[in-house]
Amino acid sequence: FLLLGCSSQTTVSTNATVKTSCPIVLFSSEHDQYITGNIKPITTENISYRAEINNYAFNSECSIKDNIFQAELSLLFIVTPDLTEESSIALPFYVAALNTTDEVVDMQYYQVDGDLISESGNENYIETELTKTIKLKISFFNAEEFNQDKLVVGFMLDKKKLGILY
Questions:
Q1: Which of 51, 55, 121, 144 is the most buried (most CB within 10 A)?
Q2: d(CA 43, CA 164)
């Protein structure tokens, strides 16, 4: 006994991993720079170091499994010392997922830590590159629309730092 049939709908097991195109990654125009200072309140005269988000890359294919978008995203940060006396760096940043109408559907928070590089022969710090690789896991509702979504990366800044930068 043999049964054959066809259907206009295709079902995919919820446990299956489906490869998908990676979303566009943008850097927030208002949060693409970071400053910090050792002296409070922070002013333009006492900034320890400045940082900017410089580049990104997806390290593996983007995929969807169990209705969760998954990707490994590496970010490059450039840190420029100003009046810093210590080498440690801490850069808090976020990754926001926006849907096709630019509404935030998910926001994740991270921090990249590292040390400023010093010049050989003295204790002056120089421009330093830091990279951070994060494993994104973002819930979504519509796979067809997700391919048109965007990721926005920016630094977490308070109003005082925003006022100094802009």
A1: 51
A2: 7
